[in-house]
Design brief:
The chain is mainly α. The protein is built from six helices and no strands.
Length: about 130
């Protein structure tokens, strides 16, 4: 049961979370607040958006996502290693930028970031399989 329909469970988590967060970002008031807080916090605050709470909630979402990824990795490998997630911050930023998110905020999509992560992962695997000296 580790690979339903021939795909690893982590892929199913990735697809499910991409769909769920796409819905949250594009179809809910909170998603609109997220875009507003990233685009122009002062204008969002003037329109009644609780910018501080939105940013705090996004930090909590980030922590929950990191916890989920670490749990999936521990269950997949059977062990925990403190160096396993080292330098993943730069990869996450690169994946988001490849996917079309602006570093200045206010523009981006969950689908774009997911496809950016997929593209970055494919390039990394391609470099590994071709044997290019890093």
């Amino acid at each position: 049961m580790g690979a339903p329909l021939g795909l690893p469970v982590s892929i199913w988590w990735w697809i499910g979370l991409t769909l769920a967060f796409s819905y949250l970002l594009l179809r809910t008031r909170l998603g609109n607040w997220i875009f507003a807080s990233g685009g122009d916090p002062q204008a969002a605050r003037n329109n009644g958006v609780p910018v501080g709470r939105v940013k705090l909630l996004l930090f909590v979402f980030t922590a929950v996502a990191a916890t989920l990824v670490s749990v999936i990795q521990v269950l997949d490998t059977g062990s925990a290693d403190v160096l396993r997630g080292q330098a993943k911050e730069l990869e996450a930023i690169a994946a988001a930028v490849i996917g079309g998110c602006l570093l200045t905020g206010g523009y981006g999509s969950v689908l774009g970031a997911s496809l950016g992560a997929l593209t970055l992962g494919m390039v990394q695997q391609g470099i590994l399989f071709t044997g290019v000296n890093t």
